[in-house]
UniProtKB/TrEMBL annotation:
Domain O-antigen ligase-related span(s) in chain numbering: 227-371
Transmembrane segments: 24-43, 49-69, 81-98, 104-124, 136-158, 191-214, 221-237, 243-259, 271-289, 359-380
Lineage: Bacteria, Bacillati, Actinomycetota, Actinomycetes, Micrococcales
Organism listed in the record: Microbacterium hominis
Coiled-coil regions listed in the entry: none
Locations listed in the record: Membrane
Membrane topology reported for the UniProt record: Multi-pass membrane protein
Name recorded for this polypeptide: Ligase
Pfam families: Wzy_C
């Protein structure tokens, strides 16, 4: 006789697998590292250079300790070798630099930033990495808006570094943290103290938040709000270079989406030729019509005096064309007599406002060649990471992931920024290049490989078999 029971035959319900507290702390620390690097100049503006240097070294020690304790699997043969060669050449410049103390101090920043980039790329998976970038950008952009509101509503006036108040008028060459123009409709600078840097951070934020939205991340309504905030800050920063960066992002995104539709061998070649012609024509049109374009954007044809600065720096760089005058990125405050960039340059400048001129001045033709190879390798790998369909077996119709768009669109942003700004080789810009280049080489397929499958945040915690 059958026994009737109401006891279910299925397994009892269990709680979903969640990340351990340690892994949550690790992700939180990575978010702090990314936010601190992206904030960049906000630290010396608020705390001063000595305190910032101590914070940089302390953060590097913490990350190195966590990396040594967690021991994530790393394929040491697959490192961003060109970026590391550039850093090594910068270290070698200690042998011929004309400003030893400045070179040594800025080398610490370069090496710590490089190590932090490798650390974040090693301990996070692709989805966690994009999520951490989104969280870091939320902090930087949100604090930028709150900072400008505080300056306008509480401080009421121009804010100088160290929270100092301006007496009188702003002198030529003075470093100003905020011009208090949020309510007046002028250009805002955010916590980074630079309108161009804020514009590119906001542009990167729009890219990352859109990718997170397309990936069906939780709380998508909030992502729409963060995208709107990024667009507002981008518009209020009023950077002509930022608008060119936005145009480049749209062009690259459209090209990637078109390339993803190809089905036959050789079909991409025709698109490459067409887009190469369009890109060349666009660059020529921008150059020939730069006067009208910059006038429309409210800028002078000489990029607000940068062409004169470039001419002086280029002349100084040609005095030592091969090895340069010694690494110093960003430019430290030096006397005019000891500064390698020589007299006639604004003493308040911390960069050459061009990646390539900055590197040519400091590390010569060799350094510029190594940096060019770094960017070329990054763009090459990130491009095919975005356009190639994920495949590791006979299945050839797996869907594309929006996450794969982040590296190539970030590369487009940094390349355009580097034309008239040195941000891509300082702090957050350099961290993004090294981190994403390293991650692409370690995990060229999303969700595949030891570095992608081992972590709790992606596929849950592995079961422990009782002994």
């Amino acid at each position: 006789m059958a026994v009737h029971t109401k006891h279910p035959v299925a397994a009892p319900p269990t709680a979903p697998i969640r990340a351990t507290s340690g892994h949550l702390l690790l992700r939180g620390w990575c978010i702090f590292v990314l936010a601190a690097a992206l904030a960049g100049s906000a630290w010396p503006l608020a705390l001063g250079i000595p305190a910032t240097a101590v914070a940089v070294v302390a953060a590097g020690v913490v990350s190195a300790s966590v990396w040594a304790l967690s021991r994530p699997p790393v394929q040491w043969r697959r490192l961003p070798w060109f970026a590391l060669a550039y850093a090594l050449w910068a270290v070698c410049s200690l042998l011929w630099t004309t400003h030893l103390a400045a070179t040594a101090a800025t080398l610490v920043l370069l090496l710590v930033t490089t190590m932090q980039a490798l650390f974040v790329g090693a301990v996070l998976t692709w989805r966690e990495l994009v999520r951490a970038m989104a969280s870091a950008l939320k902090w930087v952009l949100g604090l930028s808006l709150l900072f400008e509101l505080w300056v306008s509503l509480v401080w009421h006036g121009v804010l100088l570094p160290g929270f100092a108040r301006l007496d009188g008028v702003v002198a030529d060459g003075a470093v100003v943290w905020s011009h208090d123009q949020l309510m007046s409709g002028g250009r805002i600078q955010g916590i980074v103290g630079d309108a161009t840097a804020l514009a590119f951070l906001a542009l990167l934020g729009m890219v990352v938040f859109a990718v997170r939205f397309a990936s069906r991340a939780p709380r998508r309504t909030l992502l729409v709000g963060w995208f709107a905030l990024s667009a507002f800050l981008f518009f209020r920063a009023g950077s002509a270079l930022g608008w060119l960066g936005a145009a480049a992002v749209v062009l690259v995104l459209a090209t990637v989406l078109v390339m993803r539709t190809t089905k036959r061998a050789g079909e991409r070649t025709r698109y490459y030729v067409v887009y190469a012609v369009i890109a060349a024509a666009g660059i020529l049109a921008v150059w020939l019509g730069r006067g009208q374009i910059f006038s429309f954007l409210g800028r002078s044809t000489d990029l607000d005096g940068r062409e004169g600065t470039w001419a002086l720096i280029a002349a100084k760089a040609l005095e030592r064309p091969l090895q340069g005058w010694g690494f110093a990125t960003p430019w430290p405050p030096l006397d005019a007599a000891s500064a390698p960039w020589g007299p006639g340059i604004d003493s308040a400048l911390t960069q050459a406002h061009s990646v390539w001129l900055d590197v040519l001045l400091q590390l010569g033709i060799v350094g510029m060649a190594l940096l060019a190879l770094t960017f070329f390798a990054y763009v090459w790998r990130s491009w095919f990471f975005a356009v190639d369909r994920p495949r590791w077996d006979l299945v050839a119709d797996r869907p594309y992931s929006p996450v794969t768009l982040v590296p190539t669109l970030t590369g487009a942003i940094l390349l355009v920024q580097g034309v008239a700004d040195s941000g891509p080789i300082v702090a957050g810009g350099w961290l993004l290049i090294v981190m994403l280049a390293f991650k692409i080489k370690q995990a060229p397929l999303l969700g595949r490989g030891a570095s992608e499958e081992r972590l709790v945040g992606e596929q849950g915690e592995t079961e422990r078999v009782p002994r």
